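Most newcomers find our protein records easier to grasp once they have seen one. To make this concrete, we reproduce a full record directly below:

…
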Amino acid sequence: MRGPRPNGGFGALAQAPFRIWLVGTFFSRTGEWSARTAQDWLVLAVLTDGSGAATGAAVSLQYLPVLLFGPYAGVLADRLPRRRLLMVAQVLIGVNTLTMSVLVAAGIVTLPMVLISAFVLGCASALDLPARQAAVTDLVPRTHMMSAIGLNGAMTNLGRMSGPVLAGVVIAVWGTAGAFLVTTVCATIGMLVLAGLRRRPGLRVRDCSQRRATLRDGLRYVGGRADLAVLLVGVGLVSMFASHSALMTALMSTTVFHRGADLYVVVGTTMALGSLLGSLASAYRPQPRLGSVVAGGLGLSASMLISSVVGDFRWYALMLFPIGVFMMTYFISVTSAMQIATAPHLRGRILALFSAVQMGSMAVGASIVGTTADVLGARWAVRIGGCAALVAAVVVAIGAVRRPEVAATFRAAVTRHGGPGPEPARG
């Protein structure tokens, strides 16, 4: 007898712990990206004379720890209670941004201080990402797994886009110190939400045998899955060259259109609205599909290439809406695919590898984007990003069309790990 069909849409919202979880995810992600934006703006507009290279270095340090330590954080996410790991990450973010707020307000902040802060923020992200992504499926029944992953991805990316908007508003009104303080408040809220989940099921390792979990197991698993490898290659390309939305909009706003923080808010808001639409549309899909990944990459490529040639600021701001839509379509499709198509006992490590590829590529690409903007101009940095998104979409499409076993393996894994079946034990 067939079990219940997996549900997309918003079915996971029927679970009270998951609703609480989404609130915490929104505040923690909004605060983190507010801090990233404040650091970028501080380097670009205050501590340097619009240096793209220096700003790119700060962005690289925000992501480098995920590349260096992320895979090992994934092992911890499969060994230790995930709620505790997430609370440690929020404490680290809160202390870091509160310190920066004081330093900026006192007028004694220097470029090396910001770079150190960026690295600490990256360390917190390395600890947070695999535990947060793996914990989502602990909070809902299996039939609502896709719904939960999609909604969590939507809330994560909504926070990712809301953070820069919030930072831009606060910077324009109260300055950079205020933006860092807002992040401290968001991190505190996120930690309180996690504390409120302490008596609820989930956020724990279900099988005590996972205390022997190793990174080698995760690497071996990916090595035997061509479908996951293809997705990781595409994520690496898009993350390296196309996903630096905060950096690119800051460079385009200041060096091409010569606008300040007030209109930087406008472009951030436009992209946030597009990201919201793309996130909700992605969350409503009942199952992850490779075709959604390809469509997101193609749409992102076309939108970025068009935005790189417009001559009026209003048209540039308008083009950020489809960029937000397709960027969220791409990343949520890939994230959902990686989670659903992975064996549950390996999710922490596989998602850590995904985060390491994503953030590590962003760490390398940020300096390339910043240097490209300094040498060739910000428009060329955006064009290169658009071309990278096109190549990423083609890689996934070729992998699915030229090698039918890739798509077949992916569909079988989705059915096995995310489709109908008995509920896992809540140990």
